[in-house]
Amino acid sequence: MSRLGLYAAALMALLSTTVHCQDSGGTHRAEGGRPTGMAMRGNVLWLADSPPARGDGPPRSGMGGMGGMGGMGGDRSGPPVKRLWLRAGADPQKSGFAREDTEATVDMTLVTPQGKPEGEPLPPAEEGKKNLSFEMPTQGYYRLYHTTRKLQGDTLAIAVAKAEVTNFSHGATEEERSVALTAPRVLEAAPIEIVREKNPGEKLSFQLKSGEEQAFVVLQKGLPLLGARVRFVSHDGWTKEAVSDEQGRVSFQIVRDYFPSWDDFQKRFKATYLVIAEASAAESGRFKDQPYTNVRYQATLGGTYYPSPDDYRSYAWGLGLGFAFLLFCGTAVYLYRRRRVKPFQEVRFDEKH
Amino acid sequence: MRSIRDAVNQVHFNRFRFWFQLAAFVLFVYGGYLAIDLGSRLPFFSCGYNQEGRAGVCYLLPLQHQLGRPWPMLFTAAGLSILTGLGIFVLWFIFLNKGWCGFVCPLGTLQDWLTALRRGLGIRYAKYSHGQFKQMTKVKYVLLALTLLIPLGIGGGLWSHDLSPPFCLICPARMILPAFTGDFSQFTIDFSSKTAVVMTALGMMVTALFVVGSFVKKRFFCFICPMSALHYLFSKLALFRLKKDGDKCTRCGDCYRVCDLEIKEIADEVGKRDIMTDDCTLCLKCVASCPEEGALKATFAGITIFESTEAGFVRRMNKGHQP
Amino acid sequence: MNASPTPEVPAFQRSRQARESEITLDHITDDFDGNPAAMQYFYDLFRRVFIQGEALPHEGKLIGTTCIQAPDELIYAVGATPVRLCNGSYHYDQIGADFMPAKSCALVKATLGMLHSATRIPKTARPDLIVNPTTCDQKKKSSAMIEGMGYAVYDLEMPNVKESEEARLYWQRSVRQFAHKLREVTGKKLTRQNLKKAIAKTSRAQAAFRQLHNFRKSSPAVILGKDVFLITNAFFFDDIDRWSDAVEKLNAELTQRQAEGFKAAQRKAPRILFTGSPPVFPNLKLPVLIEEAGGVVVADETCSANRMLYDMTAVDEWLVNDMVDSLADKYLKPCTCPIFARNDDRKRRLLDLVASFEADGVVYQALAGCQVYEMEQKSIAEALNAQGIPMLYVETDYSPDDQGQLSTRIEAFLESIKTRKRKAAA
Questions:
Q1: Contacts of A344 in chain C (CB under 8 A)
Q2: Which of A135, A249, C51, C253 is most deeply buried (CB count within 10 A of its CB)?
Q3: Is the pLDDT assigned to residue A174 strictly greater than 80?
């Protein structure tokens, strides 16, 4: 039955599934099985659910923007497949594919609802393909971590690009959701990460809308990190910086930066934001047999947001038109009944006594 | 057994129906809060836009959505899923036939409540003339055709997706039923595109018309409901039926008198046994108001479950007696 | 006029007119054994009204009706009393002959004769209004004549076809206008309360009648047709509540009779369905003859009995507008009067009555001059014969002269039915 519910869900709420971000550039593994790093072309790596060439914007199909999710609607066989691209650069629109960096070590970990809580390594992308893809056979949250470690002098740079993908069909229950939310966090693979704070009343079909306030929590090794510099980058590249508090929390208002002419306006326009958190710590250790005394942490989280319905839906007009027409019809019926003496019904009776 | 049958046949039918409808309304408008989900192939307006409270979804919503897929998809497995969907819909439908309209449909129940309000205010109801009736009764088929063809056009890329699902956008249930769970978000005009403006404005106007119309005219909307037309296509298969024994009929017109849909055949037709017409909502008020023993009856899979009796009639029409 | 009782027999009681009624009533009471005790009310009522000439009281304005098509409920609602003027007296028939051509319906002539007479029996006050539904030609034409006698007459317009929606609306309009007229006459208007009460009054009477009607299905019969005709004739002028009480009392007695296996007629008595022109007291000649000859009238389709009381009103919304239209529908749609252009409903009704009352034959009375019944005779006979039901067509009038000849024909008819039954049983 849950499948049946899907169409409905898709239509009405523009999607039962929220996609926060994505992954991947191509990751390769060397022949010995050790991953080789990707180059950091910009200084920021992040996971997006669209490749740079195609860019963001309106959904490709008319299926309520579900194109990327596949498998929805039950018309294809097999579980839905999610594709993510690793991109470099701090501007959601301009950043290109990440290039390979041979000096860095890369770990890719996928945490699935049905799998081990500490996650499993993600198999490398198929030859010649730039995206990372994984199946989502069960409902819940899927998190992909792309961790790069690289020594720069005496500083170890650890960059964690994270994508969180939700796969909830309409029939998903709150229980499934809370199970997914309370799953333990991975520590080893991702020493730092950004978590989008979920509102307690948030529905499974949640979509972030411009104009809303959204909080993020920076976790370092699973604990809230105080004093991290957090940067929010909007779809058009507008940025704002804040510092996390003792709960590791920082919150931004999602600015509206989509101002097309009315004819071009798309209410399902999918904009991408990027959150980058950075922190340094005086930790020492060895990496690839080289000592280091400082660690520079960087975490990224991409996400999407949509135009706010408040921008294009109007209660005033809706109710105004409704009441005006109600009044019109009511008056018309009243006058019709008052004035028109039907040939067969000119005698009327008073219902009052 | 006999006493049970007498008790059923003498029931205060309007009272029974009121409570039944109320229970069905609560189930389908608020059942979702109890995690009831009866799927999305329901043969009545359990509106899918009522996301929180609905206990199932009206079939017209997924049907339009399925038909709105790109054309090549219609000829793949997806096309098959349209047929299975229709199959499930028919299975639901044949169980109660149009009784879904008369007893379960939340929008139908709302119309009956508006009627009760008008009655309470002592305002007489409106009637169509015979000529108007004949014209109006076709509207439902036109709406059904549009409900099925417009999505095909959308899937073929002829029209904007903002037109989808066309019937739902103008159906008053989209506005009204979510409002019962406190969701007034449908009472808006969507200015995101020209099509959206037109469709949402139409939706608001139809909603206003619905309120005025069903206030003055009993079951105003049922008369033009495309679901009703869709029902009629499958009514030959139904288990729940309305039967008439023409030999016992005196053509007194009592059934026609109480019919919300002004169906003249119910009184005048004495040849046909299966008397349900396309406008009928199978509310069975006619059976309850027929004074001839067994002239009208409701049967389920051939078994009579409610039939007209003289004693039942006398009991039910006994309004003015002072004890 | 001296209403006080005198020891001598009053003049009226000695009149030929009273004698006519007395003969009929004596036949009804004395020729049969085992009359129900509850019938005494009706025997006494007829004796008082028709033989002793007792005056009938009424409440509010008195509205005379010449046909069952005038809605009694509206009259009761405005606090007036309806009285049905259709008359069955040979005495008045002869007086009325001055108004109508010789070959006219006895019932219309008797009604005119009664209205023309100084003493009107049943002795009611002078009607404040006479409602004359425009049914058959003879009744239509009496309007002007009654008006000429100094009465206020209201023509209640009836359509000639009843199947069409237009006719229905036309009739609803007529009934609405009639209600308007009643308001003018009585000064009282229809309200939800008074109309609801009036409908309850008549539906109680109808429910009682239907119960009585259903008793006649039992075989052997628990009540004879002559008694039922007497009862329904009393409905013409009796107080409706008292009438309902008496019928309910009779029904209680019949329930007991049925339980005891009482036989009002022989087990093998041919069961007769009576149709055609209405038997109106004292002209109960034909039903009485049938039952004296050993038959039993188990059902009827006439406007002095079944058709007057059988069809009940259904109301959807108990508002004045809807109640009035409901009443209008009840008075038009089920009506099987032959004045309508088509009469398929009458055929179906007769066949249904034959089937549900297990009638062995049909007696069709046509009052000489009652053209519409005369004209329908052939088609009804064909419809019945197609089902193998024998029909006896009797053309008669109010004169007692043809009694001998009629009883011979009836006996022969009943005998033929018995023979058929014997053959069928063998």
A1: 169-170, 172-173
A2: C51
A3: no
